[in-house]
Design goal:
This protein is mainly alpha-helical. It contains 15 helices and no strands.
Length: about 270
C-alpha cells in the first residue's frame, strides 16, 4: 500500500509538475522499487485511456456534423457528471492495496471501452439532413417514360442520361425539348428534370419544377410534396422539409404517405 504522499508524487510526476531535482530523485526511486514502478505505469495507462482518449476522441475543429454532435455530448453537463463520478472513484481507489488497484484498473479500462462504444454508436447513428436525403431519394422508382411507350427519342435520351448521373446533360435535353415544342412537360418528365436540378445543386429551379408538377392536376401531381421535402433536406433545411411532409400526412391516400411518416419520425 502506498501513502497519499506517494500518490501525490506519482500524479506530479505524470503531470510533469515536479521540479528537476524532485523528478531525478523520484526516478531513482522508481529504478529501485519495482512495485512503485508498476504503480506509476498503472496510473499512466489510466490517464491515457481516460483523459486523453475518451475526451480527445474527436478533433475540436471537426467540420463533420456527426462528430460535432458527439463532441457536444461529451462536453455536456451529463457527461461531465459521469466524468466527475469516475474521477471520484479513481481517488477512492488510491487507498487500496496494489492488488486491488490492478483489478480496479481493468474495471476502469472496461468502463472506458463501454463509454467509447456507446459514443461510437451514437456517432454512427446520428441522422443528418444530408444522410436522410441519401437514404430517401428514390430516383430508381421514378416512372420510366420508355416503358410507357408515350415518349419521344429525345425524352428517352434525357432519361437515360439521368440514370447515368449525367444531370447537366439531362437538364439540357429536357429544357431543349420544352423550348422546341412550346408545350408543358409531362409529369414524368418534370420528375426527372426536378431531380436533375437537385442533384446538380440548382435548388431554386428544382422547386420551380416541382411546383409545376404540383399544379399539373394529374395523378402524379401531389408527389411534388415528397420531392420538395427531399430538396429541402438536400439543402440541410429540416424545418421546411417537415412542412412538406405534413402536407402528405394530412391524407393517407397521397403518394409516399408511409415514407413520409417514417422520415418525419427521424426528423423530430
Amino acid at each position: 500500500m502506498f501513502s497519499n504522499d506517494t500518490h501525490e508524487k506519482i500524479e506530479a510526476y505524470l503531470n510533469d509538475t515536479m521540479s528537476i531535482a524532485d523528478r531525478a530523485d523520484f526516478e531513482k526511486e522508481l529504478n529501485n522499487n519495482p512495485e512503485l514502478a508498476e504503480e506509476v505505469e498503472i496510473n499512466r495507462q489510466m490517464l491515457l485511456n481516460y483523459d486523453e482518449y475518451a475526451w480527445g476522441f474527436f478533433p475540436k475543429n471537426s467540420r463533420n456534423p456527426d462528430a460535432r454532435a458527439v463532441e457536444n455530448y461529451l462536453n455536456s453537463e451529463e457527461a461531465r457528471v459521469l466524468s466527475d463520478t469516475i474521477s471520484l472513484a479513481k481517488d477512492r481507489y488510491k487507498a487500496q492495496n496494489s492488488s486491488i488497484r490492478r483489478k480496479t484498473f481493468f474495471y476502469y479500462a472496461a468502463a472506458s471501452v463501454v463509454i467509447l462504444l456507446l459514443a461510437g454508436n451514437f456517432f454512427i447513428n446520428v441522422d443528418t439532413p444530408e444522410s436522410l436525403y441519401n437514404d430517401y431519394r428514390n430516383w430508381e422508382t421514378l416512372p420510366s417514360q420508355v416503358d410507357r411507350g408515350k415518349t419521344t427519342t429525345t425524352l428517352s435520351r434525357g432519361e437515360q442520361l439521368f440514370k447515368q448521373k449525367k444531370y447537366a446533360e439531362a437538364i439540357a435535353v429536357f429544357e431543349t425539348y420544352r423550348e422546341e415544342h412550346g408545350a408543358a412537360l409531362s409529369p414524368q418528365t418534370l420528375m426527372y428534370l426536378g431531380a436533375s436540378y437537385i442533384e446538380s445543386g440548382q435548388y431554386g429551379k428544382a422547386m420551380t419544377t416541382f411546383d409545376q408538377l404540383l399544379n399539373s392536376n394529374t395523378l402524379d401531381s401531389e408527389s411534388a410534396y415528397w420531392y420538395k421535402a427531399l430538396t429541402y433536406l438536400k439543402q440541410g433545411d429540416k424545418e421546411k422539409a417537415k412542412l412538406q411532409l405534413e402536407f402528405i400526412l394530412l391524407n393517407p391516400e397521397l403518394p409516399y404517405f408511409e415514407k413520409a411518416q417514417e422520415l418525419m419520425g427521424k426528423l423530430k
